[in-house]
Amino acid sequence: MTTGAVPDLNYLIEGPEAAPVLVLSNSLGTSLGMWGTQAPVLRGRFRLLRYDTRGHGGSPAPPGPYAIEDLGRDVISLLDRLGIERASFCGLSVGGMTGMWLAGEAPERIERLVLCCTSALLGPRSVWDGRIRTARKEGMGALVDGVIERWFTPAFRSENPDIVEGMARTLREADPEGYAGCCAAIRDMDLRDRLPSVRAPTLVVSGAEDAATPPEHGELIRDAIPGARFEVVPGAAHIANVERPEKITQLILDHLEER
Fold first, then answer.
1. Beta bridge partner(s), residue 25
2. Cα dihedral sign for 52, 56, 62, 63?
């Protein structure tokens, strides 16, 4: 089931107008603010476009369930709205899933691809059904503790309480219906057959301690996309760009500027 593109995603575009465009796509339960550490560096070299996935941040939350196709078509609609014909794309978690769909279905729009802490198939269905029920019946607060444990390593949680609380606040304030709709998109997704058709130069990044999308999920993606490269980031769980910001920023730059 698809619901059609959301025409008015919340977005922020920065950087030199003549520079190549880079799109950053957020994870489940976050917002475009999750890329705040990367943005100052990346907007110095790229026309940087960050957006809130539907149901997140300042973007609308239409009734669900959603499909990964919906999330991908939202991006195409946004690019069209801004007059951008072609861009590089970097997404984490559900943002990476969106990137895989785009690179397979609209290859003419994607220059280079970075897939962080993501998966082409992420079960079991019962886990997602449970999160959907909890979000709708109990609210987002009931999910926060378990999600934060998956997002960050124990050491990072202990040493960076302010950062962790900021991320927890974003999750707590997420729209339950939008979150549930994106959970359904992940539950119903299977991108494995699309991966061999991806032609954009691709970097796959996994956190060494990511229990949500373990490194073997990244290896599967690497093995299926022709010519893809794979990096494992030590000391990082699921939200690796927040936990290891300098390392992730450098990996993105190295891949996008490789010629």
1. 51, 91
2. positive
Contact 194, 101 (CB under 8 A): yes
Domain range holding 178?
11-256
* Integer CA distances (angstroms), 215 to 120, 210, 231, in order: 12, 7, 9
| Per-residue pLDDT reduced to its tens digit, 30-80 | 999 999 999 999 999 999 999 999 999 999 999 989 999 999 999 999 999
Residue 6 lies in a domain: no
The structural domain count of the chain equals 1
Residue 207 DSSP code? E
Q: 28 in a domain, yes or no?
A: yes
Asked if 137 and 235 count as a contact pair (C-beta separation under 8 A), the reply is no
Q: Evaluate whether residue 1 is within a structural domain.
A: no
Query: What is the separation of C-alpha 233 from the centre of its chain, rounded to a whole number of angstroms?
Result: 17
